Amino acid sequence: MKYEKAQNILPQNIIELIQNYADGIYLYIPRKSNSKKAWGEYSGIKDILEKRNRDIFDRYKQGVSVKKLAQQFYLTEYSIRRIIRKEKQII
User: Fold this and answer.
1) Does the keyword field hold Transport (predicted)?
2) What DSSP string runs through 49-65?
3) Which of 14, 35, 55, 84 could connect to 10 by a Cys-Cys bridge, CB 3.0–4.6 Å?
């Protein structure tokens, strides 16, 4: 989230009205519900993790053991099994 100066985006009368309630403090203004982004959409991490999980599943289908996958991807065996279960449901 990036901070913006109120005087750069709001009219002076709106700033004065807000100052009646919140003078000199940081104020978070939430997004409208119809413009909210899902987790990971801004940073792209969601796509990265989905690709990693498909890669794990593909390697598992090729015969790589859960233990070896855990070592390769620095995850627990439990996490690898969870990813495999989830990927199986997608197919």
Assistant:
1) no
2) HHHHHHHHHHHHHTT--
3) 14
Give the SS3 label for residue 86: helix
Chain center to CA of 76 = 21
Tally of helices (H runs) and strands (E runs) in the chain: 5, 0
What length is written for the chain?
Answer: 91
**Is residue 55 classed exposed, middle or buried when 0-12, 13-18 and 19+ CB atoms within 10 A define those classes?**
middle
Those residues with Cβ within 8 angstroms of residue 37's Cβ, 6 or more apart along the chain or in another chain? 31
Q: What is the pLDDT along the chain (91 residues), one digit of tens a residue?
A: 678 888 999 999 999 999 999 998 988 888 787 766 777 777 888 899 999 999 999 999 999 999 999 999 999 999 999 999 999 998 7
